Automatic annotation (TrEMBL):
Organism: marine metagenome
SUPFAM superfamilies cross-referenced by the UniProt entry: PLP-dependent transferases
Entry keywords, A to Z: Pyridoxal phosphate
One Pfam family matching this protein: Aminotran_3
Hydrolase as UniProt keyword: no
InterPro entries: Aminotrans_3, Class-III_PLP-dep_AT, PyrdxlP-dep_Trfase, PyrdxlP-dep_Trfase_major, PyrdxlP-dep_Trfase_small
Name used for this protein in its record: Acetylornithine transaminase
Gene Ontology molecular function: any one: identical protein binding
Stored Gene3D superfamilies: Aspartate Aminotransferase, domain 1, Type I PLP-dependent aspartate aminotransferase-like (Major domain)
Coiled-coil residue windows: none
Cofactor(s) listed in the protein's UniProt record: pyridoxal 5'-phosphate
């Protein structure tokens, strides 16, 4: 048994999440296995981002192949895989261009900024309001928590933009 426990989270991590007691150490498909080998169905994998499962052989192969070529480059450089994907997305959708980001919060923040820019350019400076659902969650950046409307994410960070 590992000396890493749920208490380790409380000791070393910022408390912006509240994970359960289970600490997964391995995954296969839609299943997770904890430190004792107990099996769980992963119902939260990728939270609203992806549902790839764990350790699928074709994904491991693709990641290994890419990892042997190029790990990561800053967005100040173009790279072939991103350009190939961007081309495929524009050909398969309504979009003329795509925007890649690191997280849902960053993507939402960009969408909100682009909406405000579009409204300002098209309708004038007085069109700057964003309409959102109460208690929605759009990310943890200052802009997205302001739009999201959940007091527990906004409390203590004022004054907020808006």
């Amino acid at each position: 048994m590992s000396d890493i426990t749920r208490a380790s989270f409380d000791q070393y991590m910022m408390p912006n999440y509240a994970p359960v007691e289970v600490i997964p150490v391995r995954g296969e498909g839609s299943r997770l296995f904890d430190q004792t080998g107990r099996e769980y169905v992963d119902l939260a994998g990728g939270i609203a981002v992806n549902a790839l499962g764990h350790a699928h052989p074709k994904l491991v192969e693709a990641l290994t192949e890419q990892g042997q070529k190029l790990w990561h480059v800053s967005n100040i450089l173009a790279n072939e895989p991103a350009l190939v994907l961007a081309k495929q997305l524009t050909e398969a959708t309504f979009a003329d261009r795509v925007f890649f980001s690191n997280s849902g919060g960053e993507a939402n923040e960009a969408a909100l900024k682009l909406a405000r820019r579009y409204a300002r350019n098209r309708y004038g400076e007085d069109k700057d309001e964003i309409i959102a659902f109460e208690d929605a969650f759009h990310g943890r950046s200052l802009f997205t928590v302001t739009v999201g409307g959940q007091p527990n994410y906004k409390s203590g960070f004022g004054p907020l933009p808006g």
